[in-house]
Specification:
Layout: H1 2-10, E1 14-19, E2 24-27, E3 30-32, H2 39-50, E4 54-59, E5 70-74, H3 78-88, E6 93-96, E7 103-105, E8 127-129, H4 133-138, E9 145-152, H5 156-166, E10 171-176, E11 188-195, E12 200-207, H6 208-222
Parallel strand pairs: 1-4, 1-6, 4-5, 6-9, 9-10
Antiparallel strand pairs: 2-3, 7-8, 10-11, 11-12
The structure holds cytidine-5'-triphosphate and calcium ion.
Length: about 230
Amino acid sequence: AADLFAHQALTGKHILITAGPTQEAIDPVRYITNHSSGKMGFSLAEAAAEAGAKVTLVCGPVHLPTPDRVERINVISARDMLAACEAAMPCDVLIAAAAVADYRPEVSAEQKMKKDPNSVDGMTLKLIRNPDILATIASRTDRPFCVGFAAETQNLLEYATTKLRDKNLDLIVANDVSNTAIGFNSDDNAITIVDRQQQQTNFSQTSKSKIARQLIDFIATHINKV
Ligand code: CTP
Ligand code: CA
């Protein structure tokens, strides 16, 4: 009965999900990225579609099949990801599962860079901040119910709670990426959900697809509480 209620709450709702890493170009053949596999975001997209939502999945470069009944938009950089999310608005729920590069090279060289014969010791690459996709969408007047992720290697709940507050989120999903069994590239996850009242809910280690269904059910029961 709880499941039925949860699923009905998402029927016809538009859920926007970000997933995977971003790639930030240094030159035409080189880039900065991270180890995000995209599995959590894709599992969430699948679970949300199964719950009857209209799902838009904006994802960085990953090698994963598109779940049934999910509209997938492929992007490369953080700035592309923000533009794709803004174009997909309005939505009822945003789940930001992407591992967005915090910085990008200030300039992306038009041609493949050559080693500088005058600097045999090394070279310096200047990086500048990328936009925060989640915080940008959460500050709009038509803001959706906003769910962030906090992947941390230390001070998990403290950092997660700070992100919830700073980005004006409804929920934050904290996960400990110092544990490689539940980290970036693994099939399993274990999470703690923190809400605005700082109430915590734990989902113990299981497959990312089961965690995704639990998280979607949790969102379904919380979406109308705000
Ligand atoms: N996020 C985002 N855009 C960014 C950076 C982060 O949308 N440019 C989102 C992530 O998808 C995640 C949440 O913000 O849902 C937290 O990301 P995280 O990297 O853990 O936190 P940051 O705010 O980037 O802080 P830091 O990396 O310094 O811990
Ligand atoms: Ca970050």
